[in-house]
Amino acid sequence: MPKRIDLLVVEDDEATCLEYEQVCKKYEDVFLIGSSADSYEAVKITEEFKPNAVVLDLELQKGSGNGIDYLIQILDLKLKVKPYIMVVTNNVSPVTQAVVRNFGADYIVVKSQSDYSVDMVVNLLRSVISSIPDMNPYTPTSSPAIKKRIEEDYNRRLLKNITRELDIIGISPRFKGRNYLRDAIEMICHKEQTYICNEVAKKYQKTSASVERAMQNAIDHAWKTTDTTTLEEHYMAYINPGRGVPTLTEFIYYYADKVKDSVD
Fold first, then answer.
1. Which of 14, 93, 245, 255 has a 20 to 30 A CA-CA distance from 178?
2. Which among 79, 75, 88 has a CA at the least distance from the CA of 49?
3. Do the bridges between strand 5-10 and strand 84-89 make them parallel or antiparallel, or are there none, so unpaired?
4. CA–CA separation, 165 vs 81, rounded Å?
5. DSSP-assigned letters across all residues of 124-191
């Protein structure tokens, strides 16, 4: 049976973490246990959930600790089976890379190389995984606790991205339609909905017509009050010139695609 990669990503860029989630979903043999911007939290996750592969960003500027801290603490754990650790870094210093290898990194990918991407990193892991000893064979099941953790972490980052996008174009919390739009975009990210206004209306116990009206009013107001440069920079889909503003459906699906694909 093929071996499964139970992957932990130690990375401080949220958009990159979201991209790892999207890429991993494409492959049946890659299961993303979780991600962390904190090297100390990452050590705890490694100890508790025992990933067999780790993608480790060496420079963690937004979290606590750094990649070398993680490597040192993993050595101190004296794990029965150490995960395969692939370091990704902008640091091309031979000295630094030698230190990283000495502390247990199995492979180093330099981000400046021309073909670097999240997809490349995941596929590189997939290509070497069969030669890594002591890995668990693929099974279609996984811990419900891990699944819940991943789903909650994904939803938190997804909602944060949606909220940021709405803020940028001037749809503030004072508009009723703001929460409706946020939830509609989130729903489309998870599963395409035929009657999205109905689904949002059910959640808030409102009529579908009132929810639709509030969402469109919020969009219309943004296009009247936000400067044109900001709108053109952050909403790049086609808008019917005769109408001048996106339709509700156009708006929701545009932002669902934008945040889901981590396009900032």
1. 14
2. 79
3. unpaired
4. 42
5. HHHHHGGGSSSPPBP-S---HHHHHHHHHHHHHHHHHHHHHHHHHTT--TTSHHHHHHHHHHHHHHHS
Q: What's the Cα-to-Cα distance from 63 to each of 35, 39, 66, 182, rounded to whole Å?
A: 12, 8, 8, 27
pTM of the predicted model as reported, rounded to 2 decimal places: 0.57
Beta strands in 184-261 (DSSP E): none
Question: Considering the chain, what is the average pLDDT of its residues?
Answer: 86
- pLDDT value at position 77? 84
Beta-ladder partners of 35:
9
CA 255/CA 231 separation, integer angstroms: 13
CA–centroid distance for 14 within its chain: 6
Helix, strand, coil distribution of the chain in percent, nearest 5: 55, 10, 35
Number of DSSP helices (H) and strands (E) in the chain, helices first = 11, 5
Return the SS3 of 51. Answer: coil
What pLDDT band is residue 156 in, cutting at 50, 70 and 90?
confident
- The Cβ of residue 177 has, within 10 Å, a number of other Cβ atoms equal to 25
Please, are residues 51 and 9 in contact by the beta-carbon 8 Å criterion?
A: no
Neighbour count for residue 4 (Cβ, 10 Å): 21
Distances in whole angstroms, Cα of residue 207 to Cα of each of 29, 165, 216: 44, 26, 15
Residues 9-23 pLDDT 10s:
999 888 899 999 989
pLDDT digits (tens, 9 = 90+) for 21-76: 989 988 888 999 889 988 888 998 898 888 989 999 988 877 677 889 999 999 88
| Residue 139 in this model has a pLDDT that exceeds 80 | no
